[in-house]
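Support case: user asked for a sample of complex input and structure output to validate their parser. Sending the pair below.
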Amino acid sequence: MKPNPHTVKDELLSALPKKSARKRAEQIVVNERRPDGSVPEIKANVRTTPGAITQRGCTYAGCKGVVIGPTRDILSITHGPIGCGFYSWLTRRNQTRPEGPEDANYIPYCLSTDMQDEQIVFGGEKKLRAAIEEAYELFHPKAIAIFSTCPVGLIGDDVHAVARDMKEKLGINVFGFSCEGYKGVSQSAGHHIANNQLFKHVVGTNETPRPEKFKINLLGEYNIGGDAFVIEDLFERCGITLVSTFSGNSTYDAFANSHMADLNAVMCHRSINYVAEMMEKKFGIPWIKVNFVGAEGTAKSLRHIAQYFNDAELSERVEKVISDEMTDVLKTQFAVRARCEGKTAMLFVGGSRAHHYQTLFAEMGMKTVAAGYEFGHRDDYEGRRVLPTVKVDADSRNIEELHVTPDDTRYLPRRGPDELVQLEAAGLDVAGYQGMMPEMEEGALVIDDLYHFEMERLLDIYKPDIFCAGVKEKYAVQKAGIPCKQLHSYDYGGPYAGFRGAINFYNEIDRMVNTRIWQYVQAPWETEEELEVEEIAS
Amino acid sequence: MIAIEPLAATRNACKLCAPLGACLALRGVAGAVPFLHGSQGCATYIRRYLISHFREPVDIAVSGFSEATTVFGGGDNLRSGLNNLARQYHPELIGIATTCLPETIGEDVGHLLHDFHPEGDVPFRTVHVSTPSYRGTHVDGFHATVKALVEQLAQGGPVRGHINVFPGMVSPADLRYLKEVFADFGLEATLLPDYSETLDGPQLEEYQNIPAGGTPVESLRAMGRARVSLEMGRTMADAGTAAVSLESKFGVARRKLGWPVGVLESDRFFAALSELAGRPIPEKHAKERGRLVDSYVDAHKYVFGRRAVVFGEEDLVVGLTAFLAEIGVQPVLCASGGESGRLEEAVKAVAGDAVDGIVVKEGMDFATMGEMARGLAPDFLIGSSKGYSVARELDLPLIRVGFPIHDRIGGQRILHLGYRGAQQLFDAVTNTLIERAQERSPVGYSYQ
């Protein structure tokens, strides 16, 4: 029988003391799709209850691990004790493709100032300076980034002053990030801090002209499992010029040159929508939301890009690529649907993944019964229409808001106001994102920042056919007899983006939800024993 | 001798942070949940690392400092965190380990806990340990936690017949093996910690949010009444450890033993047990020793004279050195990220004839290790997955042992200890070298 989501919500809340439960109730919502297109309000981007076992990471993780991590030629130095640097070393399958053997790639390195008691007491700036100079001597990088961990903020080390001095002394770009772990409620704060600094210190510093046609930046695509490689290939075949990706398979020079693009295509709205906004304000580059997860989303996104450039030849090439790819996609879809249709999924991951991956499941005939983000904000759930009503709390105020004005010489609106109106009229949602909830079913559970014990209850009540999260959840989910697909690292599988990726995903999920492994859990003698017990009882 | 300048930065660290060790040790106490007092990210990072090695759920709660908490202190977060956790998990014990933030602001967790009164009606005990990441390594955090558990829970009283065993940071398979050996000797042993079941558990019909297994709190309390404590690890300090504490507080005699890795260290270990139990080595183990030595005879020609880089936790490095030296492999570099100050002496004590050819390095990172290894012409590396970048760079095989192993499955099932563990290590080393020769052979033979 289908569980009643309202009862489930009450049950989840009953495990918390009253005061905590009251606050928590606002983050657990039963979805409704109202006639005016709105959805119920959800509380998001707020502190996790102390003592909860959360999926969330920290500001440092978002800044160093997620945003700057995949950039191969920025040399990263973690300023802090050893743990933070170690744990963010070569994570999330930071795949990158240097163009040649001489091309710098620092991703395999994890440099840390490895703070000790002495630095905590007397300050760590001296050691940091030495580490930067030494790193420069060893690698001669184009740029060095310094990441602050928790104690740095407390002991008052000024990483930005050190960065300024070193920039002057070494003659390369050196910039710091005040991304101490405690600063925000989740890694989302770290994404913002990272992107702000990239915008301040890197974007627009390389004026090399780009003579190609159809130039775009892809924002918020992190190349998990090689996704970016698939998307890069699609763009190339369509004749779309990718100036830069923030920040999968990325390089310093591409960031610096990114203001030369004519359109920003935003994948992960959460981690980067503000960069799209700032680039529009400063350079006049419009942005659209895209989604290269799922065959349908990929086709739609390519068509939207073509629509923006309004070029018959481009549209033709895009259509050709789509039709070439869709033959195989549909063939696999048909095959897996026979085995997967009607099965259920839950997704608790990311700041856009819980939304994007629902479309892949839908393409397989599978239904998402509950979903939520680890670090999303209200606009990621309810759509940008709620932005004016989002409350700014102390944690959000902690994150610097850059005040951007049009660049004196380089501001050039790529599309005039009339053109934008026309594009909107033709169905292109410029600078828009509708959010996850309007696309979810009525009665689906939406839970922000899912707590571990809530997950255990959900698995028990709903018994979904598959649960998508990360490695922290994976083994608990599997102990409960349900397959778990990691959507942070893809369990070393993937890519899942684009058409080829969709096929990979269909096949993998098909194997997972139809595996026979669970039938071995009960040993044969256990069954016999039970039978005997029953016999005795009767 | 290769001179390597000490650098300001640690490049590709060969150590993890102290609170990770604390969480690992706490997972080895029955009914316990680790609780980190500090930043949310610490729990997440540490969970990710422990989980990807053990491939088991590892729940770690966190108080979650905010900017305001760093100014006003973490007392409120600690109290509400403990209450929330107790209500969800009904733990018997909550082990609180601090991370950098409360340590930097100088928070007195002991005092906060002293004044803490749980809200709910479910009683639970607390144990706390100070583990800032800027002091020591994961191994230090591990030992500090074991000591804190003993100091805060063990009680004195009439001596009972059992023995205490502090095995150090070994694998679940090692712990299961040790328990088997003690049982075979008829010795009643309390192992602390014991994550043999909690971090390598079966597939279940019904999920348990606190996995079964671990050292029972009652047994932990009785550690003050044991007849002897075995503290395993040649690099263990002779002050400030759990066994030293039990000795000074309750008069429980302390006996320090090396990790029984390889034949010789295992012989010493089994001799000690034989003496404690007052009975000879059980036949099963004598036979395992026999088979092990038989295999040494069969295969020494494949391994003799080969050169190895050994790295990892200090006691593991000492044990592996003993093992490699006895099979005729020359350990050329024995390195650890730890800095006990005792590694060199311990390595030299077990290295036998190989002693002159060994460079011992504490406080080592992988970048330096790679640079040094280049000049030492090793044939293979033995240590955790983190040595892979060096192995790849030098085009050498890496034999994975210790922690963390997250690019292969089965890290939790690797047996390092005893004759049985030595057998597995020996087979792994030999077969790796044979495979390498086979891969490099122009003939492609499959029989020789």
